[in-house]
Fold this protein.
Amino acid sequence: MIKKDLIKAVFSDEKIITENSNEAKEVYDKTRFGFLLKDGRIQLSFLETYYLIERERLEVYDQNNKLISTDKLLKNFRKKEPRFSIRYAVFRDIRDRGYIVKTALKFGADFRVYNRGVKPGEDHAKWIVYAVHEGETFTWHELSAKNRVAHSTRKRLLLGVIDDEGDVSYWESRWLKP
């Protein structure tokens, strides 16, 4: 197996931006990680960054060109985003299953998930996903509100439920007309 060159990224001003390289463009083109900046670099989310580090595709440096350790990055990500670990478990599981995952902030959810082979912009996301720990609770009213958002945006609602062992199960909820 041929090992691919590592992509270099810089963590600055709470953003992670890759170098302008063929490797970075290839990752963007094939996986739709991040979003393409006008200058050809890719801005990655914390989740995408950590995923690419785990897969030995990315190294992150500080503004002084010093390599940032994975442990230090993870600590920083968890500090900036308290639900990072729960969200990452769902993000990684969905990505490992071959789906494209993007943020769903405008839907009030954690993620938009595109069917396999569909790239954002070519078609709409199939699901909106909320990542939750099995010990979390919410009311029927909250579930109804989440379901209403999914229904009104023509997406399916998925709850990605993480157990104490880190395994993810999915529960789909949708409106049915009898």
The longest helix spans residues 84-96. The domain at 84-173 is CATH 3.40.1350.10 (Trna Endonuclease; Chain: A, domain 1).
